[in-house]
Design goal:
Protein name: General transcription factor IIH subunit 4
Number of helices: 14
Family: Belongs to the TFB2 family.
Organism: Scylla paramamosain
Main location: nucleus
Strand content: 15-25%
Keywords: DNA damage, DNA repair, Nucleus, Transcription, Transcription regulation
Amino acid sequence: MCIWQEVKDQQGNMAIRLSSTFRENLKVAILGGGRPWTMSATLDSDPHQRNVEFLDKYAMDRWESVLQFLVQPGRGQKAISRDAMRTLLHAGLIESSGESDNMQITSAGFQFLLLDTASQVWFFILKYLETVTERGMSLVACLTFLFKLSFSTLGKDYSMEGMDNELLTFLQHLREFGLVYLRKRSSGRFYPTRLALNITAGQNKGIIDVPKQGNLIIETNYRVYAYTTSELQISLLAIFCDIEGRFPNMVVASISRSSVRRALLKGIGAEQIISFLKQHCHPQMYKLSSVVPRTVADQIKLWEMERERLEFTEGVLYKDFMSLHDFNLLSNYASSNGVLIYSDERQRTMVVTKKGHPSIKTFWKEEQAK
C-alpha cells in the first residue's frame, strides 16, 4: 500500500520511513488541522430545524417506499424515482417481464427484502455507485462525500455552499433514497439521516441501526401474530407465511410446509427466514429462552433439507441395446472410467456423464469395427 518503505539510516542500519503524504495526513487526523470540509461551513440557525425523531421517520418512510416498490413492482411506480428504479434493475433485484414495461421481483430481490436495514442500504449504495460514471458523475467525488457523511452528526444541518452541480445531483439522489433530508434545494442546507451514518459502520452496523419496535409474536403451533398496519411488513410476512386474517391493528398468519417451500423456491434460505423473525419479534419474545421457538426454527430447517434430498446430474442416456453382452461391455467400460451415473441391466439402460460421453462413443465404434 506504499504507506512505508524500508531504507538504511546514516549508520547503515535498516529503518522504516513513512510516506510523506501519509505522515502529514496522519498528523492532521491525530492532532487536528487541515482544510475544512465544504459541508462544515458555518450556518445560521435553521428556522425549520429538524430533530432526530423527524429524521428517523423521514429516512424510514423514504426507504420503505423503495422496499414497497420492490415487493409490488407493478404498483405505484411513481412512488420511487427513476434513479432508484434504475439501481434496482442494475442490482438484479427486479426485471422486466416479457415485452411489456411491467417489472417483477427476482429471486435476489426476495433475499434482499429479508436483510436488515443497514445491509440493504449498504448493498443498494454499492450498486448505485457502480452506475455513477454512466450518469456522468465522478466516483471519487461521490465516495468522498459519502465518507464525509458517515462522520457527520445526526440532527445537525450542514451547508451546501461550494458544491458543484455533480455533487448537488448526487445529494438529490441520496435524498430520494432517504440518506439525507433536504427541505428544498434553495435552502442551502441538508441533514444527514441515520441511514447515511450507517454506511461505514461495518460489522457494528447493528449498534446504530435504525431503531424500530418489533411486532411479531411467534407461537410453538406455527402461528404468527403481527401487530402492524404497515402494508410493507404484511407483504414481507406473506413471502413465507399464509395470511389467515386481518384486523384493524393485527394480522394473523401461519407458517406451513407449503408457505416455506414457496419462499425456498424464490431462493430464500431457512436461516434468512429465522433471522427475519428474530429481527422483527415483539419485545415480549425476548423474555423467553429462545426468541423464535426451537420447534419452529428446527422445522423450517427440516423443510429446507427436504429439497436437498435429490441430487441432479446432467448426463447422456444409452438404451435399446441389441444384446446383454453389448450392454455389459459398455456398462463395465463406463464404470471402470468413473463416468457411469446409472445402470439397469434388466431394462438394458444406462446413463453416463456428459464429459464421459465422447470416450464411450469412441470405444463403442472401435468395438463395432472389430
